[in-house]
Amino acid sequence: MKILAIRGSNLTSFAGDFALELDRPPLDRLGLFAISGATGAGKSTLLDALCLALFDRTPRLGGPSKVLVGRADEDEEARLSAYDVRGMLRRGAGKGHAEVDFLGKDGRRYRARWNVWRARERAEGRFRPQELSLTDVASGQLFGRTKGEVLQAIQERLGLSFDQFRRSALLAQGEFAAFLRADANERAELLERMTGTEVYSRVSIAAHEKNAKEQEELKRLSLGLAAIALMSDADREGARAQLGEEEAARVREETRLREAEAARSWYAQRAEFLGQEQQAGSAVAKAEAEREAAAPREALLESVRAAEGFRAVVSAVEAAEQGCVRAEAEQLERASRAEAALAAAAAQRQVRMQAEAARAAALDAEASVRPALEEAATLDTRRAEAEREAREAAELAKQSKAAEATAREALALVQAAEVKAQALVDAAEAWRASHASWEPLATEWSRWQRELERFAGALKEEQAAGADVDRLGKDADRLGNEAQARREEHQGAVESEAQAQALATHAEAALGEDGGAARRALRETLLARQDALGALALAGEGARVEGTAEGDAAAEVKRHREASLRAAEEAKDAASRRVTQEAMLHEARRAQSRAEATQGLASHRAALHEGDPCPLCGALEHPYAREGSALEGLVAEAAARVLELESARDAAAKQEGAASVRQATADTAATQAEARRDTAARKRTTHRESWRAARERWTRAVLPGEDSASSADAKASSRGEKARTASDAGASATNAEAPRSLSANASPPEDAEAPAAQAWIRAAQEDVSVRLATLREEEASAEARASAARDARTLLETRRTRREGATDALRKAEDAWSRAAQSHREALLRRDTARDARERALTEVSPPFASETAPWKEKLAEDPARFQSRCFDRVTKWREKLAELDASRRRLEEEQGRRAREEDRLKDRHEDAQTAGHRASLKDAAFQDASKARARLLHGRSTQEVRAELQARLDAAQATYERAREDSEALQQAEKVATARAEDAVRLRTEAARVLDSAQAVLAERLAGHGTTLEELKALLSRGAAWCDAEARALNALRESVAQARAVLVERRERRVRHEASGLPALAEADVADLCERLRTDVEVRRRAEALLRAKLDTDDAARARHGAEARALELRRGEAEVWKTLGDLIGSHDGKKFKVFAQSLTLDALLLHANAHLRELARRYRLERVPGHDLDLQVVDGDMGDEVRSVASLSGGESFLVSLALALGLASLSSETTQVETLFIDEGFGTLDPETLEVALATLDALQATGRQVGIISHVSGLAERIGVQVRVVKQGGGRSRLVVEGDAGIVVPADQQVA
C-alpha cells in the first residue's frame, strides 16, 4: 500500500483547493520529506484529509460525544456533534471534499473521495450526509453503492483497517516516549491502545464469567435432581394390583348400571307411546266434529256455483250504464272545447295584424341611421389607434421614472452597506487586538481538548467509583443481614419438616396394612346376593303379572272378535247402498250438464229474427226463441236432484267407512290382544324358568358360599380390630352373626307365584340391606383414616418444599453477599486508580492556563464539562471573529465596486425618463383631437351600441310577427278538430243509451224466470272463483284431516303394541329409578378410586422420566462445564489481566524484535529487552559499556527520542506484516536531537527508501529544511486561511502547480 496523492477543498484552514502529489517531482524521487508550519496552520489537516478519504474517520475525531456544537441562535438540528467529521468543512463554505490516490495490494491505482456539503451548497444551509466513492483510475470503474460497501472495498484494497493504518502509517512518536516513561500498569494501557490488543481482556473476562455461570448452573441442576421424589418398586406394584381390582369392580358395576338404565328406558318409552295414542284418539274426534260443522258451508258453495250463470248478464248491464255516463260527460267536454277554440282563433288574427305593422316600422328606422354609423366607425378606428400610442408612451415614461427612482434607492443602499462594512472591519480589528491572549488556546485546541476530556473522564470515574464504594458497602452489610435471616429460616424449615414427617408416619401406622381388599370382597359377596335376590324377585313378580295379563288378554280377544263380525255386516250393507247411489248420481249429473249446455245458448236468442238463419245451427225456424223460463226450471231441477243424490251417497259412504273403521279397529285390537296373550304366556314361562334358574343358582352358589363369606367377615373384623377402638370391635361382632341368621332360613319355594316366595324374598332382602349398611359404615371409617394419612403426607410435602425453598434462598443470599463484598473491594481499587489518573491529567492540561488569574483548577474540578464548554466557546469565538474579519474585508471591497456601478446606472436612467415624458405629451394631444370629433356623431354613442339597438328592434318585430302567424294557423286547425269531436260525442251518447236499454230488458227477463232479486244475485256473485276454489280446498282438507287422524291413531296403536311385544324387562318399574341411582353412585366411587391410583402411578412415571432426563442433562452439562473450568483456570480473570498480560508480553517481544532492528541503525550502542521476571517492564542494554543493563529512565532526551522512534518504526513493521506499507508519517519529536544525532536519524529514515518506503516528518524544527531535500510548508495567510507550498533544494525543480494550493 502506498499513498500517491492527497487532495482536498475547503477543509478547515484550507480555503479552496489544495493538493500534495507524492508521485510527482520532486517528492516522487525522495524517501524523506518534511511537513512544517506554524501552530494551527493546518499540518494535521493533511492527515485528516488522508483518513477522511480512506475511512470517513480521523484520529482526533474518533471519540463519542452527545454535545452539539454551534452558535446560541442556531437550531439544534443545524448543529453537529463535537466529533462529527462533517465539522471539517470550512466555515462559510457550501461544500468540500478530500481525495486520496493510492496503490492497492493488487498494484492498481485507486482514487478514494470523501464529499461533504450543505443544503443547496449555501453557507447557511444545513449539513447533508457525507458520501464516499472509490474509483479505479485506469478503467474508471466505481466500487460500492452505499457508504458501507465503499468502506469495505477500500479496506480490501488497502489491506488495512483504520486502526491498523493509524498504527502503521501515522506514527505518533510522542506516545512511545510516554511508553518508555510509564510504569507497568500505564505501559499496559498504552501498549493496548497502540497495538489493539484490548480483545484479550474481553476474552479473559468472558472466560471467567462463563465458568462462573456454568458452575452455578451445575449446582442448580444438582439441587433440582435431588428434589425429585420417586416411589419405591414395592409401592408401585401394590398400586398396580389395587388399580386392577378397582377396574374389574367398576366394569361389573357399569354392566349392571347399563341393564338398569335399559329397563328404565323401556318403561319410559311405553309411557310415551300410550300418551301419543291418547293424543291421536283426541285428534280423530276433533277432526270428525269439524267435518260435521262444515255442512252449511257446502250448501253455500253449491248456491254460489248455481248463480254463476247470471254473471254475464249482470256484467253487461253494469258495463252499459258506465258507458252511458262516460258518453254524456265526453259530449259536454267536447262542446266546451269547440267554443273556446272559436274565440281563441278570432283573437289571434288581431295580434297577427299588429305584429306585421311593427315589423315594417323597424325596417324604416334601420335604413335612416345607416350613413351616420359608417362615418362613426371610421372615427372610432382612428381614435383607438391614437389612444393606444398615447397609453404606450405614458407607460414608457412611467417605467423610466420608476427605474430612475429604483436606481437612486439602490445607490443609497449600496452607500449604506459600504459604511456598515467599514464599521464591521474596524470592530473586528479592535476585538482581535483586545483578545490576543486567547490565540494560544485556539491554535492548539484539539490537544487541550483531549487533555480536558481525559481529566473529565478520570474525575467522573473517580466520583462514580466513590459512589459505588458507598453503595456497595451498604449493600454488603444489608446482604449479610439477609443471609443470617435466611439461615434462621432454613433451620426453622428443617425442624417443621421433621415434625411433619413424624405426623405422616403416625397416620400411616394408624391406617394399618390394608383392610380395603377384605371389605371390597365382602361388599362384592353381599352385592352378588342382592343381585340373586333381585333376580328371584323379578322372576316371581313377572310370573304373577304375566299370568294375570294372559287371562285378561284371552277375554279381550273373544270380545274384539265378536265386535269385528258385527262391523263387517254393517259395512257390507252400507257398500251396497253406496254403489246404487253412485249410479243414480252419475245419471243425474249427465242430465244437469245437458240442461246447463242448453241454457248457455239462450243468450243468443235475442239476436234471432224470423226468416234469418240461426248463427249457431243455420236453421230458418226458431221455435224456442221465447222459451227461456222453461230451460231455467229444468236446470234448477237437475241441480237439486244431484245434490240430493250426493247427500245420500255421502251418508252411505260415511256409514261404510265407520263400519270399516270399527271392523279394522276390532281386528287390530283382537290381533293385539292375541299378541299380548301369547307374549304374556311366553313371558310367564320365561319368568318361571328364570325363577327355577335363580333358585338353582341360589342353591348351588349362595348357600355353599356362606362359610367363605363368614370367614371373610371374620378376617375383616380381626384385621380391623388391630387399628380400631372397642366400639368398632363390637360392631364387627354384630356383623359376624348376621350371615348365620340368613343361612338358617329355608331355600326359595319352587313355585314362583306362591305367596310364600314373596315373604322369603322380603326377609332375605332385609338381611342383605342391614349387612350392606354396616359395611358402608366401616368403609366410611376407613376412608376417614385414609384422608388423615393423605393430609399428613400433603403437609409433609408442603414443608419439604418450604425447606427446599429456604435452602435455595440461603444459598442465593450467601452468594449475593459474597459478590457484593467482592464488588466493594473492586470499587475501592477503581476509585484509587481514577484518582491517580485525574492528578496526572491535571498536570498535563496546566500549560495553556498558566496566565489565568482566576482559580481555574477549582472551576475545572467543579464542572469539567462546563469548563471545557467555556474554553470551546472562547476558541469558537476566536475563530468566528477571525472569519468575520476576513469576510468583512471582502465585503467592503465588494460594496465599493457596487457603489461605482450604481452611480453610472442612475445617470442613464435619468436621461431615459426625460425622453419618454416628451413623447407621451405629443401622443396624448393627438388622442384628444380624435375624441372630440367622434363625440359630435351619434351623440357620442358607440356604433356597436346603435347597431345592436336597431338590430334588436328589428329582430323582436320579426320574431313577434312569426309567432303571431304560427299561433293563428294552429288555432284555426284546433277549431276544426274541436267541432268534429263535438259532433262525434253526440253520436256516441245516443248509441250508449240504446245499449243500456237492451241490457236492462234482458236482465229483467232472466230475473223474473229464476224467481230471485237482483240484490240477492249480486250478493252471491260477490264471491268469485277464487273464493269457490278456496272453500272447496278447505272442505277437502277437512275430509282429508279426518282420514289422516284415523291413520295416525292406527299407526300409534300398532307402535305401542309392537313395543309391548318386545318383552317386559326383568326389573320392576317401581325399583328401576332407585337402582339406577345406587349403581351410578357405586360406579362413580369406583372411578374416583381408580383415578386416584392411576394419577399416583402417572405422577411417579413423570417423575421418573424427569429424573432420568435431568440426570442425563446434568451429566452432559458437567462435561461442558469441565471444559469451561479448565479454560477459566487457564486464562480467566474478573478484570481481564490474566490473559491480557500474557498476550501483551508476546506482542511486546515481537515489537522489541522489530524495534531493535531499527535501533541498530539509529543508535547501534543500545538494545531493548524485557526485565527478567516481569511481563511489561523494559531495560536497555548498553553495548559500549560491555552490555551493561540500564534503566530506560537513565536515557537522555535525544536517546529517548531515538528509542521511541525505533519503537514507532517497529510498530509500523509489526502492524504491516501482511501488507507492505510504503508511506509513513511521523509526528514531532526531532527538536530534542543534537545536529549529529539528527543527521543519523534522518539518514536512517531516508534509508527506508531502499525498502520502497516514503517518510513524511511533521515537525516545528526550522533546521529540517536544510537537511531534507524537499519541504512541504503550510503557510498562514491570515483570516484563518492557509496555503500549501512545496520547497526543494537547488537543482530540484518544483512544478508550478505544487507550489501554492
TrEMBL record:
Residues 654-756, 889-925 are annotated as: Disordered. Residues 9-222 form the Rad50/SbcC-type AAA domain. InterPro entries: P-loop_NTPase, Rad50/SbcC_AAA. Keywords: Coiled coil. Residues 662-673, 743-756 have a biased composition (Low complexity). Pfam families: AAA_23, SbcC_Walker_B. GO terms for molecular function: ATP hydrolysis activity. Residues 376-406, 947-974 form a coiled coil. Gene3D superfamilies: P-loop containing nucleotide triphosphate hydrolases. GO terms for biological process: double-strand break repair. Residues 674-699, 716-725, 889-913 have a biased composition (Basic and acidic residues). This is Nuclease SbcCD subunit C. It comes from Corallococcus aberystwythensis. The lineage of its organism: Bacteria, Pseudomonadati, Myxococcota, Myxococcia, Myxococcales.
